[in-house]
Amino acid sequence: MIKKLTAVLLTILICVLSLSACTADKPVQPAVTTETAEESSVRSVDASGFKLSYSKSDSLNPFESETLNNQVLETLVFESLFILDETWEAQALLAESYEYTDSETLVVKLKEGAVFSNGKKLRAENVVYSFKRAKDSPRWSAALSGFSSAEEKSEYEVKFNLTSPNPEAHKLLTFAIAKMDPDKNGYPIGSGRYKYGEGAGLVYLEVNPKYRGDFNPHFTKLLLINITDETSIENAVNIGNISLAFRDMSKGSKNKIQCNKKPVNLNNLVYLGINCESGITANAYIRKAISLAIDRDTLVKSAYRGYAKPALSVFNPACKLGKSTAVFKSTADTDGAVQAIAQSGIDKKDLKLDILTSSSEGKSDAAQLIKQQLEAVGFKVTVNKEKPSTFSTEVKYRHFNLYVGETRLTGDMGLKSFFGGGATSYGIDGDFETVKSYKGYLNGENEIGKFVLDFSQELPFVPLLYRQGMLCYSYSLRGDMQGYTDNYFSNIEDWYFN
Length: 498
Description:
Structural class: alpha+beta
Largest sheet: 7 strands, mixed
Number of helices: 14
Distance between the termini: 64 Å
């Protein structure tokens, strides 16, 4: 009996000890996790970990910088009233709200909690100062050309005056907002996630301790490496000397980029300009035939190495407006093109066209492909390749039937450059219904659908594709890379090294 009782007690004791052991194990796991996080944090603080290229000879002031290198960095240091997402919709950043008080007046209310990295409040006076600097800068002058002025309405309200009605004008308020005075080292001050710093002969970005919200990145310092040449930047990413770079791809790439790559949608429209005022291209059926004969998919894959999207609308295919107004096909309709030629009444012997192009790689290749596609439906085509300066002069004086052009549209998808006498309006007939209906859309006199219908019937120019850029980054960099145009470091707080 005693033996049995002893056995029972022993069994109970073992169970109690087991339960105690299980209970004691519970706090152990968080301790391991905390230690891992602390180790990760120590690695993150290392200023030599994450490296970005910059141009030492160029300014780091957002209103003065000229290189893409420095302008990419500035998106980490400065914020704007609004930021455009991947679909080119405006998201409020420093703006709390906005209101069009009439067709030519826009009032923006600021978030009252925003401060600069030195702790000073961000007020309306800072926005007005930055607007004036941005309007005079090459970087933002085109986007802000539709604004005549900005003024303080109150401490946290700014009134923007427009030169003409534009219901999407708030999408243009993406300029950097900076404090008027620099910091003690001469660096400009912003309200972004990072701020400029220097020490031990190094220049870097460090986390802005005054940044609002919960921002706890793995990389608390980003070392800046002076590399200016485009080829050298690509080589530096390939071998891991810098961690990430944005390539505009406007000149293609002579290097084989051997790293992780992410296409970035741009608002750069590549189009076929048409002389609608003289020659056979003054015939609407000929213009229709030209558009139908073009295989946009082939242009994307061959001339732009896949870094582009076919233009199925006048507007960017990545935005809602582009998706809802698609009127073009990505592939050629040769039968439709031949039929349009027949409807034109132009004799076959007169189906002669010349395509003017500049010597840039993408446009030159596109011109050759378009030549082949137009010849497949009966045109006889000559390609004239010119230096950029000569190309611009020839376009200005309308010495072309067709030309391959490229323009960067502003965030509001504005087409004033085509229909308001701008640099891309050469060859467009000012009496076209398209010109009138576009103005009517801006004035609120007609819907966008009327403009799109008029455009598809008159074809004052042919949209070909929207070009893309590239984010290239080290194989060792991990995290869901979500960067996009003008917000290349969208979710940098989630990035880490393998």
